[in-house]
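Subject: Sanity check before I submit

Could someone independently write out the structure tokens for this chain? I want to compare against mine line by line before I put it in a report. The sequence has 406 residues.
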Amino acid sequence: MSTPPTVDLQALKAAFSEKCTKSSNVCFNNSRIYEAGFQATKPKNEDKTVFLESKLGLMVALFDGHFSDELSEYASQTLPALLCARIETTFAENGCSLGDAVTESLIKGIEDYDRSLLEDGVINEFPEKEQTDWSDPMWRDHDEVWLVLGWLREHPKFQRARYAVVGTTALVAFIDKAKENVWVASLGDSDAFLGQKSLDGSSWDVTRLSDFHNGNNPREVERLEKEHPGEPPVIRYGRVLENLAVTRALGNHQLKTPLPFARHILGVIWPAPYISDFFDKAVVAPGHTSPPYISATPTVCHHSLKPGDILILSSDGLAYELREFSEEDKLLAVISLAAASLNSLPSRNTVWSEKLGHGFIASAEGDNPAERLIENVCFGTNLEQMAEAVKPSQQWDDISSLVLFL
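---
Independent answer below. Compare away.
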């Protein structure tokens, strides 16, 4: 009988560290923020996390890109500052409550930002701008489009145009200065959980603050059916037009614009996610004639806060690893594994351990709870699972988490 190969724990830890970015910071009123991102099998981690302090509070956000990391990277660098400025302006000029200012600014700000990706990045580059006749046969000549937008990523115009065709989810939380309120805007399928200690302090009460905007949410399926009456189902095989998992996102303007523009203009901003063959089979043949099929309107949830609360934002890669968990167990596990030492985990942790196939790593002085959360969900104390995570034999999604101790 052959002897199984010896697992070098230190080598595994080093390999994991190379694929995992992490940081920790202390922000307003001594709140602590921990970030971690695990790059699995993709050339670049398409998840981006960010936090930003403003005059009125703290914004934390997570962007999970698809088709590339271009828009998630760009949005993480630009959108939070725009939203914070908009909140301040709306609150100062409209005479409304902070809650109304935050809610309105998050919704309208995200919608306007998405619109600007298309208008400023593509449409306004053409001489006649929005008056351009996109059905004109000249635009079927790729060279004519490239003369306007460029054709290499080294061209600034071309790179700006790329932001309109690739996509990203957006999960944005805003916490007021007093740390009494949190508002979470959801666009896509990332998760936001709030953990609050029970009255006796012995357990966690966990609330989901995010919505599921994907093809597995019956409410989203119903919304799309109502928005496109008389057409075949928009969601097929759990995906928008059989392709995109999320039903709301930034970018993806090929699924938001009329067919001639989506096919002949956006379709040549290579490598475009959708080419002529896709439109023939998934759009024209079934009879889909009324875009947009992807929304950029977020849903916003508000919740009150108290000292000792924990807020966690995580990408859908983490949720996938917890796919065998009930919703209740998933929420409680995420909060507990980020917050607790092993001796204070709820009794359900034995069931979690069985489902995941591993024990849990204990917290240690100076460790990063966001990183430990990813480790405990993906492999814990199981070295074989850790080796699989470090060098996967199959496709793995990127996993990111942001843990905020209030």
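---
OP: Matches mine. For the report I'm noting this point. The radius of gyration is 23 Å.
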